[in-house]
Amino acid sequence: MIDPVRPITIGDIEQARQRIAGTVLRTPLVRLDLGDKREIYLKLENLQPTNAYKIRGGVNAIAGLSAEARAKGVWTISAGNAGQGVAYAARQFDIPCTVVAIETAPQTKLDRMRALGATIVPVSYDQAWLAAESHRFPGLDGTFVHPFDNHDFIAGHGTMGLEIIEDCPEVRTVICAIGGGGLITGVGSAIKARKPDARVLGAEPETAAPYALSLREGGPRKFAEWQASFVDGAGGKSVTERMWQRMRPLTDGTITVALDETRSAMRLIAEKSRTIAEGAGALSLAAALTGRAGDGPTVCVVSGGNIDLDKFTELVTAAA
Question: Rg of the chain's alpha carbons, rounded to an integer?
Fold first, then answer.
C-alpha cells in the first residue's frame, strides 16, 4: 500500500539532518563571479561522496527503515544518481541493494553503482517510469525506496534547503532542476518554512519539460515531445499526480532552457568553480542566466557531477 502524500515539515527535515550527519557533507555555497552585479551562488552538491545530492535522501530513507524492512534488502529505480545514493546508504547498513537502472544511463553511473555493491537490473526508460508510477517491479520483493516519491527521501533533500538559508539568509530565489520532483519538493519545503517570501523555481530542458506544461494546463501532464539528451538526470516524460500534489504548493514556476544554454552553463561552472557538473547539475545555472529568475541573490543547486569525462569534454568543447 502506498502511503498518502503529506507535507514535508520542518521537523521532518531537522530529524533528517540528525540522521545523515557524519555521512553526508554540508556542501559549500560559493558565489559565481561573473564580473558584474549579478548575485548568483552555486550550491555544490556535486561534491558529495557520490557526486550528487541523492545521497541525502538515500541515507535518510534507509536510516528511517525498521530492522525488519532493512532485512529484506532494498531496491530503487534510477538513471544513476538515486541508485548511487541508495547503494551508498545500503552499504553503510550492510544490506543488499538492487537498482532497476535505465539502460541508457551513462556508463560512469552504472559502474559506480556496481562499485557500491548494487545489483543492476537494466530496463528501458518506459519500464523504469512505469515502475516509478506503480511502486513495484516484477521479481523484486525487497523494501522499495522510491527515487523521488518517498517522504523520507524528500525530507533528506530538504536538509540542503536549511544549509542554503543558513549560508545565504538574504536569498531571494532558489532554482532546482526537476526530474521526478523530489529535489525541488525537499528544498522548497525547507525554504518556504524558513523564508516564505523567497521564490522556489524549477529548471527543465526544452526536450523534457513536463512540469512547465503541467503548470500551463493546470494539472499533471505527459510531455509528448520528450527526447533523450545528455541531461539524463532531469526532465521526465510526465508529472505524476502524487508529485504534482507535492510540488505545486511549494514552487513559484519553472524555467525551460535550451540544450545549448545547458552546455554553456556546464562550461561556466567548470571555469569558475573548477568542478564538474553533469547536464542536470547545470540546468539551474542555465535557468538563472536567462534573466527570467528575477533579482538576486539567487542560489542555483548544482545537483550532480556524474558524467563520463569524455562526454563532458565533448559537451563543454562544443559550448566554447
Answer: 18
Architecture of domain 10-52+151-318: 3-Layer(aba) Sandwich (3.40)
Q: Chunked in runs of 10, what are the mean pLDDT values of the chain (320 residues)?
A: 91 98 96 93 97 96 94 90 92 94 86 93 90 90 91 97 98 97 98 98 98 98 94 90 97 98 98 97 98 94 95 91
* Contact (CB, 8 A) for 146 and 273: no
* H helical segments located in 28-80: 54-63, 67-71
Ordered by start, the domain boundaries in the chain are 10-52+151-318, 55-144
- Residues 120 and 101 sit within 8 Å (Cβ to Cβ): yes
Residue 313, Cβ neighbours under 10 Å: how many? 12
Q: How many whole angstroms separate alpha carbon 235 and alpha carbon 153? A: 19
pLDDT at 236: 87
CA atoms within 13 A on the CB side of 145: 38
The x, y and z cell numbers of residue 104, run together, are: 541508457
**pLDDT at position 270:** 97
Cell of 289: 542566466
Domain at 55-144: CATH code: 3.40.50.1100
CA 151/CA 135 separation, integer angstroms: 14
Q: Do 10-52+151-318 and 55-144 have matching folds?
A: yes
Distance of alpha carbon 40 from alpha carbon 17, whole angstroms: 25
- Per the CB < 8 A criterion, the answer to whether 234 and 179 are in contact is yes
User: What's the grid cell of residue 116?
Assistant: 557500491
CB neighbour class for 94 (10 Å; exposed up to 12, middle 13-18, buried from 19): exposed
